[in-house]
């Protein structure tokens, strides 16, 4: 990221120069670490770190965060140079506000020293491990939940070398924790996965059961000492850009190379199952519950599913951002029909929540012109995202004997996007861990939309069998894909009934 660095960098030495409202609630170095976070990305910094700092400020506790980057060193280096401080700018049409966050007690780079991360996971002071590593890092089949290790994870399971994957780090960390009798720990997935707590539990149990060289009794120790509370997380956090850095510099008067920007809205729903204790997140506005499932389905299907719809249709129509895409004629009306006629009747929402009202709030958030969330960013990794965002909606609707026509439009838009060209002929990047098989399937069925749909529907690692073998769903997807290919997004939406 090319930016012009000012004379002063954010750090402990400049805190007194910051506007009072921009100073952190917690001074780094004053709160010992009790949380390890895997995945040092923008979302963590704008979400869990903000909640945790507010919880420490309100309720105290030794809950500083040591955040671990699984790949890039750039952010680790930037934060280390800034005494682990960074800023979050909250953006809306009415203006922006920037505040420095001091929740991080330290940062680590896993590839540089994986055994240091293993030691952190085994530290008895650490009682909570949170994760934002995206769907891909779990290496679970999105349909069956079975572990599908790539060569790196297979090597981690075989042992004999430093771990290089997130499951490998967790496996070795738990083994070291058990050997040290370091006490119980909660592993908390904050990724957009269906039943993310149960998915993480399945990953851990399968990895422990399949790993070579783990201590005798580790399976029993994990069963008795490790919990995986489910969560639902929500905040729109676009990728940081040079403009993000420049805006933070103008607000703070110093340079922050780890700055992030986010919308005003944030939500965190957490199942309260923490055997070693936890931060007082409820004092920061989090919802503590016995079952995050209804909240998770509300968000995955209504917000994330609609986000994917806007991303694919918007990218095909040549719109750069989600807010730009919402200006496409008739798109908002089609999205409202998707929410009301498909999503809202596919599941039981949390008590007191009306899905249609929640959907209106979602559309208002997506229309925030200050949040430049790129359609191409949201459109990545569709094979990992669509099962929980859209395909489960379709499966539940069809099991109840209902049509899933509007959800089928989202699947068709994804397939049309995967062909790699927009309505005006411009090339579109197709970034997906299953890009090879999907492109091969599309090429095999290239003679017509029906052939393309049949070929992709045969990919069981993407399309659940009950969806793939449903003739009504197949016909709807083919019809939408045919219309998109022949007429483009705008004409297809104009003719949608």
From TrEMBL:
Catalytic function, reaction form: D-mannitol 1-phosphate + NAD(+) = beta-D-fructose 6-phosphate + NADH + H(+)
Q: Which GO terms describe its molecular function?
A: mannitol-1-phosphate 5-dehydrogenase activity
Give the Mannitol dehydrogenase C-terminal domain ranges: 293-463
Matches recorded under Pfam families: Mannitol_dh, Mannitol_dh_C
Entry keyword set: Oxidoreductase
Annotated Mannitol dehydrogenase N-terminal domain ranges read: 34-282
Q: Which InterPro entries match?
A: 6-PGluconate_DH-like_C_sf, 6PGD_dom2, Mannitol_DH, Mannitol_DH/Oxidoreductase, Mannitol_DH_C, Mannitol_DH_N, NAD(P)-bd_dom_sf
PANTHER family, per the entry: MANNITOL DEHYDROGENASE 2-RELATED, MANNITOL DEHYDROGENASE DSF1-RELATED
Q: What is this protein called?
A: Fructuronate reductase
């Amino acid at each position: 990221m090319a930016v012009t660095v000012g004379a002063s960098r954010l750090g402990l030495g400049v805190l007194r120069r910051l506007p009072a409202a921009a100073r952190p609630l917690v001074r780094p170095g004053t709160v010992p670490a009790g949380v390890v976070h895997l995945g040092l990305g923008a979302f963590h910094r704008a979400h869990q770190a903000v909640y945790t700092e507010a919880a420490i400020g309100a309720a105290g506790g030794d809950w500083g965060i040591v955040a671990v980057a699984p790949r890039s060193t750039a952010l680790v280096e930037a934060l280390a140079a800034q005494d682990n401080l960074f800023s979050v700018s909250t953006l809306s049409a009415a203006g922006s506000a920037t505040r420095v966050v001091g929740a991080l007690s330290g940062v680590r780079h896993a590839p540089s020293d994986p055994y240091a991360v293993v030691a952190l996971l085994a530290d008895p002071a650490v009682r909570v491990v949170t994760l934002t590593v995206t769907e891909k890092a779990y290496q679970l089949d999105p349909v069956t939940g079975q572990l599908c290790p790539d060569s790196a994870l297979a090597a981690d399971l075989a042992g004999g070398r430093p771990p290089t994957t997130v499951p490998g780090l967790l496996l070795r960390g738990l083994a070291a924790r058990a050997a040290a009798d370091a006490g119980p720990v909660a592993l908390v997935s904050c990724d957009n996965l269906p039943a993310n707590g149960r998915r993480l539990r399945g990953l851990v149990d399968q990895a422990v059961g399949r790993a070579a060289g783990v201590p005798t009794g580790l399976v029993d120790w994990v069963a008795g000492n490790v919990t995986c509370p489910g969560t639902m997380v929500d905040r729109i956090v676009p990728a940081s850009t040079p403009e993000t850095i420049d805006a933070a510099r103008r607000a703070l008067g110093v340079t922050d190379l780890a700055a992030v920007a986010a919308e005003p809205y944030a939500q965190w729903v957490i199942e309260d199952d923490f055997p070693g204790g936890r931060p007082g997140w409820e004092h920061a506005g989090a919802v503590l519950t016995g079952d995050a499932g209804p909240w998770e389905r509300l968000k995955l299907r209504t917000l994330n599913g609609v986000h994917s719809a806007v991303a694919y249709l918007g990218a095909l129509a040549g719109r750069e951002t989600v807010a730009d895409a919402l200006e496409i004629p008739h798109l908002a009306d089609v999205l409202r029909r998707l929410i009301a006629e498909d999503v809202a009747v596919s599941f039981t929402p949390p008590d007191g929540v009306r899905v249609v009202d929640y959907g209106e709030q979602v559309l208002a958030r997506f229309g925030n012109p200050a949040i430049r969330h790129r359609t191409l960013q949201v459109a990545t990794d569709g094979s990992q995202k669509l099962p929980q965002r859209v395909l489960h909606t379709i499966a539940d609707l069809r099991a109840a004997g209902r049509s899933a026509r509007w959800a089928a439009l989202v699947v068709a838009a994804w397939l049309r996007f995967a062909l790699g060209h927009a309505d005006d002929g411009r090339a579109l990047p197709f970034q997906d861990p299953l890009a090879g098989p999907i492109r091969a399937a599309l090429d095999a069925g290239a003679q017509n939309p029906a052939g393309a749909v049949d070929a992709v529907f045969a990919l069981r690692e993407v399309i659940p069998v009950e969806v793939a073998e449903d003739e009504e769903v197949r016909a709807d997807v083919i019809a939408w894909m045919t219309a998109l290919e022949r007429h483009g997004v705008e004409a297809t939406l104009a003719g949608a009934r």
